[in-house]
Amino acid sequence: MFKILKYSIFDLLRSRWSFIYLVFYLLLGSVLLLLNSNLSNAIITLLNVVTVLVPLIGTIFGIMYYYDSKEFTELLLAQPIKRSNIFLGQYFGVAISLSLSLIIGLGIPFLFYGLVISEKVFEFISLIIVGTFLTFIFTAISFFIALSFDNKIKGFSVAILMWLLLAVIYDGIFLISLVYFEQYPLDVFSLTAVMLNPIDLGRTLMLLKLDISALLGYTGAIFKKFFGTNLGSTISFIVLIIWSLIPILGIVWKSNKKDF
Amino acid sequence: MPILKSMQNKLTVLIFLIISTISVHASTIEVCNSCKFKSIKTAIEYAKPFDTIIVQNGIYPTTNIIIQKPLTIIGKAMPTLDGLLKGDIFKIQANEVTIKGFNIINVGKDFANSNTAIRIQKSKNFNISNNQFKNVLYAIYLEKSSHGKVVNNKIFGNAVSEINSGNGIHIWDSSNVQITNNYIEKVRDGIYLEFAKNCTIAKNISTQNLRYGLHFMFSNNNVYTHNKFINNGAGVAVMFSKKIDMHHNVFMKNWGSASYGLLLKEINDADIKNNIFEENTIAINVEGSNRINYSKNNFIRNGWALKVRGACYNNIFESNNFISNSFDVSWNTKMNDNKFSNNFWSAYAGYDIDKDGVGDVPYRPVKLFSYIVNKTPETIILLRSLFINLIDFSEKVTPVFTPDFLIDNQPKMKPVL
Amino acid sequence: MIVFQDLKKNFGKFEVLKTINLKINEGGIFAILGPNGSGKTTLIKSLLGMVIPQNGTITINNQQVIHKWNYRDKVDYLPQIANFPSNLKVIELINMVKDIRGRKCRDQELINLFRITPFLNKKLGTLSGGTKQRVNLVLTFMFDSPLIILDEPTSGLDPVALITLKELIINEKAKGKTIIITSHIMSFVEELSDEVVFILDGEIYFQGSVSKLKEQTKQSSFEYAIASILKEQYV
Q1: A99: closest CA among A56, A54, A157, A162?
Q2: Is there contact between C and B if contact means ≥3 C-beta pairs under 8 Å?
C-alpha cells in the first residue's frame, strides 16, 4: 500500500490541482485575516469554509482522481498487489495531499499573523483537525461512490448530490423536524441527528469551542451534559473517527467485489 | 448680644476639643493567651468607649459578642476567631466600631436567624477591613446602618444550595456604605443590597457564587464600578431600582440556562458604560427597563449580547462593540423609541466607500435564526450551519420576520476604543 | 497447469461465461480465440483476478487464485488496450513498475530490443499507438515470469516489431514458459500456438491443436476452419 501511496502523492504533487488548492487556501487565509479586524472573526468565517468547502473539494477531488487514474489502476491490478491496497493507497494519497494543502495553506497566513502567541491557537488547531477529518471522510465517500459507478458522469453527479445532501438539505430537514415536533423532548433526537452527519459533527465540535456560551443557554439535561462537560467533544471525536472508518471499509469491500 | 453668641461658640469648641483629647488618649488593651485578657469578650466588657483592643496571634473561641460602645479591635498577624458553629460572632450596635485583621471562621448554620460573622445594626461610621472569612453563612450583615466601610475583606463560602446558604455582604435598609476591594466566593449572593441607597461598590471580585455576584433589590442611587463578576450563577441582578450607575465592570463566564452577565428588571434611568461582557450565556438580559444609556461597552463572545423582553422605552445603545457573539440582539417587544447607533458589529459585512469610519449600509442585528431558537431552543445545535446562514441571508435581503425598525444606521467599521 | 472449473460470470443479466471448464498444460503456447464479446478477455481477466467470477474455481498448479494476489508475481500480463497514466514519462513508468514488483528484471535488454531508448524521456500521453504497445511489451516481458498472458499483442505493431515479438515469444516458450495469447490475427496464432481453444458466447466450442481443428471442420486452412465454426453457429 505504501508504494501506491507514494506514487499517488508523487503524482498529485506534480499535478497542478493540489497546487491550485494550496494557493486557494493561502489566499483565503490571507484575505480573511486582512479583511477581518480580529482573529476570532476570521476563525468563524473559516468555520464556514471548513464545513462547506472542504467536504466539497474532498468530494470533487476524490471523484476526479479516481476516474483520472483509471489507467494507472488497471496497470496496477495486474501486478502482485492486494486489490484493496491499490485503492487504499490512492485514497490515502489524495486525502493526505489535500489535508497537507489545507494545513499548510491556512497555517502559513495564520502563523504570519501571530497565531502562536494568541489564545486562539487552540480554536485554529481544532478547526484544522475538523477540516482534516472532513477531507478524509469526504474523499473516502467519493472514492466509494466512484467505485460504485463506472460511468464518470453518473459518479460525479451522485457525489455532488451526496455533498449537497449532507451540507445543506440535511440541516434543512433537521430544522424543519425540530420546529415541527417542538412539543416533544428533542435532546436525543437532535444529538443523534448531529452524529449521523459528519459535517454537523465537525461543526458541533467547533461550536463547543466558539459558542459554548450560547449552547449552555439551553435547559435540556442531556444537552447540558453533552455540552457542559468533556463528554460532548469526546463522543464527537469518537464518532468522527467511526465516520472516517466506515467509508474506508466501504472502499475495501467494494474494491474486493468489483470487476475491471 | 453678638459677643455673647461668639463666646458661646468658642466654649463649644473648647468642650469639643477636651472631649476629643480624651478620646485620643484612650487606652489600648491587649489580648493574648498569656495576657491579662485571654478572651476578646472580657476585653470588650472591660474597655471604655474609643479604646483600642489589640489581639495577638492565636485561636480564640468567640461567639455572640455584642459591641455597644465605640471600639477599635485590631488583630495582629491574623488571629483566628472561631465561632464554633454557634450563632453569630460579632453584633455591632454602636457607632465608630472598627474590626480589622481577623481570620473569622465557623459561624453557625442557623439559616432562619441568618447567622453572621459580623452583624452591624443601626450603627454609623463602622469600618470592617482586612478580614478573612471562612465557613460562614453570612460574612457581613448591615441593618439600618450608614456611613461605613467594608474594605479589603476576603470571604470564602462553601454554599451548596441556594435555600440554606447566605450572602457574602448583605446590606439592608442602609445608606452611604462603601464596599471596596473585597474578594467574595462561593456564597449565595456575593453582595446583596435591599433598600440601600448612595452606596458605592468598587473594585470587588465576586466569583463562583451560587446565585448572583451582586444583587440589587429596591435600591436607588447606587454606583458600582471596576468590579469583576466571574463565573457566578449569574453576574449581577439589578431589580426594581432607579439611578444605578454601572461602569467599568467585567462580567465573565456567567454560564447556564438562566444565566446572564447582567439582569435588568424594572430599572429606570441607569447608565451602563465601559463595561466588558465576555463569554456569558446572555450578556445583558433586559425586562421592562427604561431610559438607560448603554455606551462603550464591549460584548465579546457571548451567547446573546442583548436579550430584550417586555416593554422597554427610550433606551440608547451607542458606541458599543459587539464582537463574535453567537447572537447580537434578541428583541421580542416593540421598538418603543429605543435607538441603536454608532456601534461596532463584528458580523457587519457592509462597506465604507466615503471612508468616514461609518458603514454605508445599515446593520440589522437581529437574525431570523434567533427567532427560531427562541421558539425551539434545540435548534441552537444548527448554529453556524450553511442552511442557517442561507436563511439568515435571505431574511437579511428581504426581511419578513425580523423587525425592520431594529437597525443601526451608523454601524462603525472599526471597534470603538 | 492452469485449471478453470465450472467458471461462471454474468455482468448484470448478461452471461459472459457459461460454465467454463478448461485445462491449460504447463509449457507451450495456448491461444484463446473467439469473436468480439465472446468472453475471451473476461476469461483472461478472471485468471488475473481483475474480474471476480460468480461461481467456479481457478487454480494455477493446484493453487487457488480467486481473491488471492501473490500469484500475480509469477504472471506477466499484456493488457489489450495500453492505457497508461499520460503525465508519466516512459522511464518513470518502467521504474515505477520495477519498484512495485521489487524484483530483478531485464528492462534494458527489452528496451533495446523494442527500440524504446529515444522515447524514454517522453510523456506517455504523447506516444503513438505502436510505440505505446512496444512500451507495453517491455513492461510485460521484463520480469521473466513463468506464465505470460498476452491480450491482443499484435495490435498497432509495425512489421519489424511484430517479428521481434514473434521471436521473443518463441524464445520464451523454449525456456519452458506457459504463454496464453488472444488474437484476431489468425496467421499469428496458427504460426505460434501449440493448442487453441475457441470460445463462443461464453462457452468453449473447441479445444485442441490447430491441425485437429482443421480436421474436425474438414477445412484446409485455419481461417476457414474458424469461419466454418462461426457459420455453423449463426446460420
Answers
A1: A54
A2: no
Interface residue A1 vs chain B (CB under 8 A)? no
What residues of chain C lie within 8 A of the CB of A71, using their CB?
83-86
Check CB contact under 8 Å for A83 and C49: yes
Question: For residue B84, how many other CB atoms are within 10 A of its CB?
Answer: 13
Residue contact A38–B323, C-beta within 8 A: yes
Residue A14 touches chain C, beta carbons under 8 Å: yes
Amino acid symbol at C188 = F
Q: Which of residues 30-69 of A touch C (CB under 8 A)?
A: 69
Q: Which domain holds residue A216?
A: 2-257
Closest CB from C50, C85, C88 relative to A77: C50
SS3 B234: strand
The distance from CA A228 to its chain's CA centroid, rounded to whole angstroms, is 25
Q: CA geometry: angle at A12 spanning A9 and A14, to 5°? A: 110
pLDDT tens sequence across B116-125: 999 999 999 9
The neighbours of chain B, by the rule of 3 or more Cβ pairs under 8 Å, are A
Chain A residues with beta carbon closer than 8 angstroms to that of C44: none
Strands B103-105 and B127-129: unpaired
Cβ atoms within 10 A of the Cβ of C204, count?
A: 20
Q: Give the pLDDT score at A200.
A: 94
Amino acid at residue number C81: I
The grid cell for B411 is 454601524
Cβ distance of A77 and C99 shorter than 8 Å:
no
pLDDT at B132: 96
- The candidate with the shortest Cα–Cα distance to B239, out of B199, B266, B277, B212, is B266
Indicate the number of domains in chain A: 1
The distance of B194 to chain A (nearest Cα, Å) reads: 28
**Chain A residue whose CA is closest to C92:** A7
Set out the domains of chain C in order of their start, with CATH numbers: 2-234 (3.40.50.300)
* pLDDT tens digits, one per residue of A86-113: 899 999 999 999 999 999 999 998 888 8
Q: Which pLDDT score, from 0 to 100, does residue C235 have?
A: 46
The domain limits of chain B are 59-397
What three-state secondary structure class fits B60? strand
Which pTM value belongs to this model? 0.83
Interchain contact, C96 vs A7, CB within 8 Å: yes
* Inter-chain CB proximity A38 and B324 less than 8 Å: yes
- Report the topology of domain B59-397: Pectate Lyase C-like (2.160.20)
Tell me the pLDDT tens digit for each residue of B34-44.
Answer: 888 988 999 99
CB B383 within 8 A of CB B291: no
Which distant-in-sequence residues (6+ apart) come within 8 Å of A199 by Cβ?
A51, A52, A55, A134, A166, A167, A170, B385
- Cell match 476591594: residue? B181
| Tens digits of pLDDT across chain C (235 residues) | 888 888 888 888 888 888 888 888 888 899 888 888 788 888 888 888 888 888 888 888 888 888 888 888 888 888 877 677 777 888 888 888 888 888 778 888 888 888 889 998 998 888 888 888 888 888 888 888 888 998 888 888 888 888 888 888 998 889 888 999 988 788 888 888 888 888 888 888 888 888 888 888 888 888 888 888 777 765 4
Q: Which chains touch C (3 or more CB pairs under 8 A)?
A: A
Number of inter-chain CB pairs under 8 A, A vs C: 65
A217 to B380: CB separation less than 8 angstroms, yes or no: yes
Separation in Å, CA of A241 to nearest CA in chain C: 29
Q: Is the pLDDT of residue B94 over 90?
A: yes
Task: Decide if C31 contacts C171 (C-beta within 8 A).
Answer: no
Backbone angles phi and psi of C21, in degrees to 5: -120, 120
* A82–C69 CB contact, under 8 Å: yes
pLDDT of amino acid B48 = 92
